[in-house]
Each structure stands twice: as C-alpha cells, then as structure tokens.
Amino acid sequence: MGMGRALAVALVGLNGHVIEVEADIGQTLPNFILLGLPDASLSEARERIRSAAQNSGIPLSRRKITVNLVPASLPKKGSGFDLAIVMAALNAAGDVRRTGSTVFLAELGLDGRLRAVRGVLPAVLAALSAGYKEFVVAGANLAEAQLVSGAKVRGYDCLAQVVADFEANPQELIGLEGVTAAGIETAQPVSGVVANHEKVDLSEVAGQTVARLALEIAAAGGHHLMMIGPPGSGKTMLAERLPGLLPDLNDAQAMEVTAIHSLEHRASGLVGLIRRPPYERPHHSASTAAIIGGGSGIPRPGAATRAHRGVLFLDEAPEFDKRVLDALRQPLESGELVLHRSAGTASYPARFQLVMAANPCPCGKATGKGINCECTPMARRRYFGRLSGPLLDRVDIQLQVNKVQLSQLSDSAQRESSAQVAKRVEMARDIAGERLKKWGLVHNADLTGRVLRGPLRLGGHDTALLDRAMGTGVLSARGYDRVLRLAWTVADLQGRERPGSDDVGLALTLRQRGEGL
Q1: Within 10 A of 376 (CB to CB), how many other CB atoms are there?
Q2: Considering only 307-316, 422-431, 474-483, which range has the smallest mean pLDDT?
Q3: Segments in 457-500 forming alpha helices (H)
Q4: Cβ distance 191 to 272 under 8 Å?
Q5: Contact at 8 Å (CB) between 360 and 366?
Q6: How many CB atoms lie within 10 A of CB 209?
Q7: Is the dihedral of CA 226, 463, 444, 339 positive or negative?
Q8: How far apart are CA 457 and CA 455, in angstroms?
C-alpha cells in the first residue's frame, strides 16, 4: 500500500483547472480524510464512495485513507470528483493501475452507478489544452465529451466497468443488473436545448414594414434593438423571429455556446454542437444574479451568458429592476462578464444581441395624441426612468412600433418569410466579414471609432445630417459611431460598396425611434 493518483477538473466559470487527486493509505485506524478546500457536496463524497465501492465488489481499504486535491488552495465544488477520488484510493491499494494520466469525470451512486455531471465539455477542453488526452466519463456524458476533437473518451455505466478496464479482475466485480463489466450499452441522451424560436416565421407578422426592416438590419449587422409601442402591436412577435434570421454558428462559436450550455445540463447531457443562435427571454421579475450570473460560491452563468452568440430579449423592459438593466452595460461594450465573489472570480462570454420591448406608458395607451392614457406625467417619467441614458445610448436601433391597422391585418398579400430575409442577412454578413477581417472584426456592430474615422471614414457630404445632429446635442459621440455602424449595414444589405447620405439618413432615423418613416 502506498500513494495513488488520478486526475479531475475543477471549473471556475468556463475556465477549467486540472486537479491531481492524491490518495494515501496509512497504517492507523479506519478513517477517510478529504483535503483541498472541498465544498459541502464534495465533502459528502466520502460516504458515497465507500458505499459505491462496497456495492461494486471492490471495498476500500479499512485503514486510514487520506485524499488530497492539488492545488489545495483552489476551491473545489460538486460531485464530479467522485470517480477520480475512488480510482486514486483503489490505485493506492493496488486494485487498479494506470490512473495517473487519465481524467475521471463522474458522480457515483450508492449502487456504483456512474451519474452524469455538468460542465463535461469545458472540462474536457481544459484538460486537453493542458496536455491530457485520456478521459473517463459517465455513459450519459459520453456523446458530449466526444465533441472535443483529439480527446480519447471512454464512457461507462458503473464503477465495476471502470475498474475492469484498469486491470482489476473482472470476475471479482459486481456490475449493475443487465450490464457486464466487459461492455457498455449507453442510451443516447437527448439534447436539452429546444430552439422554440425556430418554429415561428416572419411571414406571420402583419404590417409593420418599418419594424421588419429594422429587424433585418439588426440581424445583418448584429445591432441592439429597442421597440416601443402599444400592447398588441407585434413587438414580441418581431423579437421572437430575430433568431430565425441569423445564420448558423461556425465551429468555434458552436463550441463556445455548447460549452456554456454544458454547465446547465446534467441528466440528459448534450449529443451535438449547438448550431443555432440561442434565445433567452427572462421574466421581468428576474434578479441581477439570474440575468448577469451569480449564486453562492463560484458564480454561475446567467441569461446574458446563455444568450452568448444569440439574442437576449427583455420584454416589458421598464418593468425590470433598474440595477439589472444597468448591469448589462458592461457586457454590451466588452462582450464579457467578470463576476467577483468571496469564493473566487469567474468570467463568462456574453456577446449577445440585446432586444428590448416596452409600452409607451404603464397603461399602454399613450399613443398618438395620448388622449386615452390614464397615466400621470410623473408615472410616465418613472416608467421610462428605469431605462438609463447610458444603457439606451448603447442600443443602436430605437424604434416606435405603431398599432396594426385592420387593413394590414386582413391583407392577403404574401409576406416575406424568415428564410427569404435570412438569405439577404447572410449575404450582408458575408460582405461585412470580408471587409472587416483585416481588423479582426466580424460584424458592423463591432466597428471601432478608430476604424470608422480612419480607413472607413465617410465624406462630409454623406455625414452632414449626422454632424448636425451631434452639433445640436441630439447624439453623443457613442451614438454618432453607432449610427455610422448602422449605415454600413444598410449599405451592405443594398449591395453598395460604401454608405451614402441616404443610408446615413435612414440609420439616423432608426436611431431616433423611426420618426419620419
């Protein structure tokens, strides 16, 4: 009896740290000591592991077992260390071999069954980048782990199977009923991501010609969008159809999005890369932690991170807490969320398209002359007061959505479908991507002021209207740049090489709630 070793991964946000699990069997009275800053769920692993090993026919040593999780200064949480700990203990006892270079990621049931854990995909990515290629996971996580190219992954249903493959004697092991230690029969899990927004189509939206145009421009350039209009005007319908206009994610983007959703899926696992842009629509009662991320210990991702590379829709935006809305200002600029807690700091990607919808007032009747509105002036100011100026300044398109007329609702003319608009969006994105790749940018919404006022500078005649708007204080410097970004997207959709004065004028109008359209 001596030292045993195995490997596991501790996730801090999406960043994984390879953990060396050391096990030592002493010569004193029976005991099980777990070192290395384990949390409550990990500390409970001692009893799970003893029962799982006993019920699998490979009981742990009756002497003192000391397990150390290295580095000891890094907090560890969760039940994903169970398998690594038991394999290190069995390695110390001489029951298994060759565990020191294999990463084990699974929770143990009392009967020895291997259960799926969250975050397998980012854990495998982190360990592979650190130079480790061999992995053992629960059968339900096998398809997810195999998404990582270059990783040698094996999936098992019970502890007996794992021990059998690591040079224990299979005849002495007790497998689960209906499962032999020599083979694995793993049912294919189903994906936990259901893209409900793909079931809707833009052709279902009646009227709203200007709003449909704004939605197309937002999709083509990756611009943020704010829609203000009375109840029933179609704001929510339009927002739900935005993801259907976006192209599929490329390999790198799909891996990012799938890794994020891996942190949320456990029992079913993920069977393939998520290729469609995600869509998140939190309720207006959601807390800051629910939107931005948080929780006890290491912060978990929120809706903003789950919407990475997709759409975050805030319906009834003024009903959200002001602190929640202002917390979105950081990711809107940087595309990243850095959350600091006493237990550690976690960073998550959060490059999403923000879409907000709002009524013109609390009662929703302040349209036109507003003669039917029941709200006091103070109530109206308080209602929109939650949408701070700095937040709205980051929203490229701010549009007034008018009430749908009866003639528009009953119009039998064929409306453009999502597929038709998506083709133009993809073409415009290809044009922009080719132009911007020399600066390492992807979308027009990513354009920096240095590029807009340098290589892509427009002539004074083209920006005359925009210059006057800034001179009169209608636009801030940030707003000036955002109108220029919109103008480039309008030109791309029209197939023009550079935006002209008409494109800049349309962009400025969309920035100013569509007044004049």
Answers
A1: 11
A2: 474-483
A3: 464-471, 477-494
A4: yes
A5: yes
A6: 11
A7: negative
A8: 6
Cβ proximity of 233 and 406 under 8 Å? no
pLDDT value at 20 more than 50: yes
**Res 227 pLDDT > 60:** yes
Question: HEC states along 14-71?
Answer: CEEEEEEEEEEECCCCCEEEEECCECHHHHCHHHHHHHHHHHCCCCCCCCEEEEEEEC
Q: What is the mean pLDDT of residues 174-192?
A: 39
For residue 289 the two structure tokens come to 């932690």
| Residue showing tokens 């700990």 | 85
HSE of 454, CA atoms in CB hemisphere, 13 A: 6
Quick check: pTM over 0.70?
A: yes
What residues have CB less than 8 Å from 122, skipping those under 6 apart?
A: 11, 14, 15, 16, 259, 262, 263
Burial letters 258-291, b for 16+ CB under 10 A, else e? bbbbbbebbeebbeebbebbbbbbbeeebebbbb
What's the pLDDT at 410?
Answer: 67
Count Cβ atoms within 10 A of the Cβ of residue 471 and give its class: 0-12 exposed, 13-18 middle, 19 or more buried: exposed
Contact 112, 27 (CB under 8 A): no
The label of the residue with tokens 């919404």 reads: 445
pLDDT band of residue 179 (cuts 50, 70, 90) is very low
Describe the chain by its helix, strand, coil percentages, rounded to 5: 40, 20, 45
Cβ 445 vs Cβ 333: under 8 Å: no
Q: Which two tokens stand for residue 228?
A: 């203000």
For the stretch 256-291, pLDDT in tens is 999 999 988 655 567 889 999 999 999 999 999 999
Mean pLDDT of the chain: 87
Work out the pLDDT band at 188, boundaries 50, 70, 90. very low
* Measured distance between the N- and C-terminal CA atoms of the chain, rounded to whole angstroms: 81
DSSP 307: T
Query: Residue 101 corresponds to which amino acid?
Result: S
| pLDDT value for 270 | 77
